[in-house]
Amino acid sequence: MRSHSRDRASGGVLEPAVRYGSSRARSDFEGFVELYRLPYGRYARARLDDVAAAAEAVAWTFGYVEAGWDTVLGCPEPAAVCWALLRDAVSRCSASGGRSVDWLHAVLPATSADVVVLRCRLGFDPSTAARLMGVSAGVVEVELRAALRILARA
Question: InterPro entries from the entry (predicted)?
């Protein structure tokens, strides 16, 4: 997950390429990973019919977030930024040959499709889905109703 680079001063020992502003920033990132690893993995596996591709998408997401952790934390809604990165990583894995079982993202707007995956396929309650996506529970409910209307017409 974490990228590394060779540091000549340390005799070629692998050192983390990401430098944190403080030990607190590092522990905050590690806490974020601990909190989101399982639900991110469940989401990726629900959208891809390939466990390895799902794991790759999650690992890429966390690596990218880690590299820009200070920037992510400076955003108004960090969880929404991370969710958008995860969604994009899963979509790229699907487009690059990973087998997708996710027809929802082909027929619904991305946010609506994500809500359906989280609420209906994975059984997350509205507040958990909202926390994962970095939106309010009200947005989750509105998007779910919109998705169900669209799917009823399809």
Answer: RNA_pol_sigma_r3/r4-like (IPR013324), WH-like_DNA-bd_sf (IPR036388)
